[in-house]
Amino acid sequence: HVNGERLWQSLMELAQLGATVKGGVCRLALTDLDRQARDLFVRWCEEAGCTVTVDGVGNIFARRPGRNAALAPVMTGSHIDTQPTGGKFDGCFGVLAGVEVLRTLNDLGIQTEAPLEVVVWTNEEGSRFAPCMMGSGVFAEKFTLEETLAKRDAEGISVGEALNAIGYAGPRTVSGHAVGAYFEAHIEQGPILEDQGKTIGVVLGALGQKWFDLTLKGVEAHAGPTPMHLRKDALVGAAAVVAAVNRVALEHQPHACGTVGCLQAYPGSRNVIPGEVRMTLDFRHLQPERLDSMIEAVRGVIEATCAKHGLSFELTPTADFPPLYFDQGCIEAVRGAAAGLGLSHMDIVSGAGHDAIFLAELGPAGMIFVPCEGGISHNEIENAAPTDLAAGCAVLLRAMLAASVA
Amino acid sequence: HVNGERLWQSLMELAQLGATVKGGVCRLALTDLDRQARDLFVRWCEEAGCTVTVDGVGNIFARRPGRNAALAPVMTGSHIDTQPTGGKFDGCFGVLAGVEVLRTLNDLGIQTEAPLEVVVWTNEEGSRFAPCMMGSGVFAEKFTLEETLAKRDAEGISVGEALNAIGYAGPRTVSGHAVGAYFEAHIEQGPILEDQGKTIGVVLGALGQKWFDLTLKGVEAHAGPTPMHLRKDALVGAAAVVAAVNRVALEHQPHACGTVGCLQAYPGSRNVIPGEVRMTLDFRHLQPERLDSMIEAVRGVIEATCAKHGLSFELTPTADFPPLYFDQGCIEAVRGAAAGLGLSHMDIVSGAGHDAIFLAELGPAGMIFVPCEGGISHNEIENAAPTDLAAGCAVLLRAMLAASVA
Ligand SMILES: NC(=O)NCCC(=O)O
Ligand SMILES: NC(=O)NCCC(=O)O
């Protein structure tokens, strides 16, 4: 089977590029560190006998020919950009599991029927350039190349400029490609597998996401001489909204999340009643009606709270991804591979967005999760066990082999 | 009586120094604009026949001799520094009402028994240099001169350096002065007088204040894959604290305030559960036991919330002023002056800190409030009616005259 030691060594070698003192990785999309990581991936794939091409948004495709060149490729991949305080495994595991699949097939002298492709998708994290899952989104025609190349980072550098600067604006066309099947291995980024003592998560689908910006406006006034009953305190209103987002998510279980990630009170002076609060709302659910029901419940609280405290509000949508169910055949391929390898496994739903979600628009897609320590991700202390990573890679190999002969 | 037109003209002339486009004033303590305002005050007082001295922390004393030089002076004053987005009246009204008292006495050829002093206290606002009420605090020996001169602004400039730069580090000793009586006229900075349709607030005392910094720590994690029941969301905890501060203040009426002025969630990313929240708590009450009871009630909520959500917390005191009751004689002097002038008046409690609170440590002190439009202060739109300001000044004149012959 796969060489878990080799997979681990590659992960550790890649993690050198942008290594942080706290043991994490800071390798933002389309920086020179990203270029170095891409160069390393390209070298490893060429050494494994692949043909490497790069498309107009910087996605890198390493192709291992099959017996039948007319078949659409069986693909795998993920991303090698990281959060500013990211870990070694988020994304990189999926890419290097793909590389390990290539190496294992070479070791075993196996030729597949369909060609295989291992892909590095550009800017999955969305940290430097929004939105996230940018490369796979362009590949799946969710975003146009033109609008995407024009997106700018906080310094005003565009995606197009950054791609040219690192030499990864490639000639391959970005869209119109057939996908035989797509599998993506990823750390769970949550605590369920660890909690349940399972090695493999058979990913059934992913939660739908709706994000909003919410601004509450009251009246800034002095914290001493302004009587409580005459205040229009935007933060008191915001606190009711934070509580409601949490409560409504608990009431919409299972597969419901509600998070306020950003909240700032203005003007932000100890003895001034906040006249304005800006916050973000992130709702996730597996059922579209339940997702909307969460949002309606919170909207009701926002309206009632604003009426009670004399506030006005503005609620602006910033992201909208519907819930996604992966292809039944791919789900069964992953489950079958785990069972065949004697690995403990369970069905699971992804709470996070992944490139596989966009790939599912183009062909049958599925995902394989492995546990991460304490369920912690997007954090420099992110960790995963070498045996679990090897197990996930072995499942990926089996699933891809099954798809490539089908 | 006093010349309301002249008082208004002086207020408008002073408001030119640091005037903002929104009609407010930005004249931070010990800046060159503050120097210009001080120079104008000094000129006006010298023109009114006063002797002007400056002490080591920059407090300016304009003295009008009385018949009996051995008597401790009857003083009035306030401040001419402003908030960064401040108004024309907060502080300046008290100082210029004092100047108008001098001018009126000159017009009427009245000599008082005790000397009179009009004082500009350095840095009441505390915006550039903390703490607030700095000059009066040094005068009342609440703070030492040495520690005060060493306080630095955000740019690292010390109070001592700033005083020297504007030429207002004076030779007069900062402490040990006798105070015959102290009266301070001020806009209310709250909505009660306007709401009740009264011209004069007879200030009985000021709320005690206890301020805290509160940090809540949970665990930063991904907003999608982390199930609701396993989260340690610091912001959900903070929301419960904000709600409790508000509720507890409502339950401790009358004369109770509870405000969270600053709140920030970290790391502050849309799809990351906040692992840390830093916030400020401002509690005010007229009764010390009720002030402590508010704090104990909120502390109970903090403890219960942290236990419920798996958070830790740190609660650090940052300010502690006990409630203050002004001198009964001064209160009656203000009430009697208002009644004698036929002005509608009511007893009121100051929700804000004022220089008079420190002066009350040194001698009998009292305050006179006049309404401000909508109760709004610490805001560029702060406004007050010329007739109300003239009325407050007339009350100040009567109260000072009564004290100076007593
Ligand atoms: N995998 C991942 O972290 N994606 C970012 C988008 C999300 O918040 O789900
Ligand atoms: N008058 C005034 O605004 N003082 C500042 C201190 C306080 O918050 O009460």
Automatic annotation (TrEMBL), chains A, B:
CDD domains on file: M20_bAS
InterPro entries cross-referenced by the UniProt entry: Amidase_Cbmase (IPR010158), Bact_exopeptidase_dim_dom (IPR036264), Peptidase_M20 (IPR002933), Peptidase_M20_dimer (IPR011650)
Cofactor mode of binding and number, as noted: Binds 2 Zn(2+) ions per subunit.
Binding site residues for Zn(2+) 2: D90, E125, H378
Keyword Protein biosynthesis applies: no
GO molecular function: hydrolase activity, acting on carbon-nitrogen (but not peptide) bonds, in linear amidines; metal ion binding
Cofactor(s) needed by this chain: Zn(2+)
Annotated positions binding Zn(2+) 1: H79, D90, H186
Occurrences of domain Peptidase M20 dimerisation (ranges): 208-308
Signal peptide as annotated in the record: none
Domain of life: Bacteria
Keywords: Hydrolase, Metal-binding, Zinc
UniProt record similarity statement: Belongs to the peptidase M20 family.
The protein, known as: N-carbamoyl-L-amino-acid hydrolase
Organism from which the protein derives: Ectopseudomonas chengduensis
